[in-house]
């Protein structure tokens, strides 16, 4: 049983590790500028800003090995903070960072009753589950650490 759990943890960790910073070199050698554009690090710790690459349509910049990945599978590494602290659409809760949330209890602004997602989950304002492991096309994610 323990053996199985360890194996599971080893396999699951790299998949669920999500970064939420712009302009940092990630493990995949790319540094996301915003949701869809990135620079390369060429093995260094600083992004080379002389060349900018743009993900093709429908893909976002992620920390996955392929860099640009389907938004419906993985949140972008950085970019959109507009939805942070927004109680809409259902005024139940708002995401306050990638993995924290605050309840709204019907109000327009979040209350100080807050919580955080379990390891490997992130907050998605578009779902009643609050914390999820996979994004959808409708995901409302707060790109803040
Ligand atoms: C992301 O940055 C690129 C390069 O600076 C820019 O061309 C693009 O419009 C930006 N995209 C968004 C969604 O801000
Ligand atoms: C970026 O381009 C400038 C001008 O071509 C060059 O001087 C500089 O060394 C380049 N920087 C990097 C990190 O490649
Ligand atoms: C939340 O705010 C209320 C009113 O401002 C205060 O009485 C309460 O102690 C706060 N609760 C926490 C957990 O900070
Ligand atoms: C919002 O409410 C509608 C209708 O009650 C429901 O279908 C939907 O899942 C809710 N969305 C969230 C984010 O809770």
Report on this model:
The protein starts with a helix and ends in a 13-residue tail after the last strand. The protein folds into two domains: 20-70, no CATH class; 80-145, no CATH class. A three-stranded antiparallel sheet has the order 1-2-3, with no helix packed on it. It contains one helix and ten strands; from the N terminus they run αββββββββββ. The chain is of the alpha+beta class and 145 residues long. Strand 1 and strand 2 (37-40) form a beta hairpin. Residues 1-20 form the signal peptide.
Q: Could you name the key traits of this structure?
A:
10 strands; 2 domains; single chain; alpha+beta; 1 helix; 3-stranded antiparallel sheet; 145 residues; binds 2-acetamido-2-deoxy-beta-D-glucopyranose
């Amino acid at each position: 049983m323990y053996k199985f759990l360890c194996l599971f943890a080893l396999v699951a960790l790299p998949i669920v590790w999500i970064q939420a910073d712009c302009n940092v070199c990630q493990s995949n050698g790319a540094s996301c500028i915003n949701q869809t554009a990135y620079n390369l690090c060429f093995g260094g710790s600083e992004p080379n800003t002389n060349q900018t690459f743009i993900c093709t349509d429908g893909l976002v910049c992620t920390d996955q090995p392929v860099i640009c990945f389907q938004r419906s599978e993985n949140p972008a590494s950085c970019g959109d903070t507009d939805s942070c602290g927004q109680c809409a659409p259902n005024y139940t809760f708002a995401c306050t960072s990638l993995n924290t949330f605050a309840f709204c209890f019907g109000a327009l602004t979040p209350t100080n009753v807050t919580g955080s997602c379990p390891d490997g989950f992130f907050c998605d304002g578009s779902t009643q589950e609050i914390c999820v492991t996979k994004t959808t096309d409708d995901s409302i994610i707060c790109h803040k650490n």
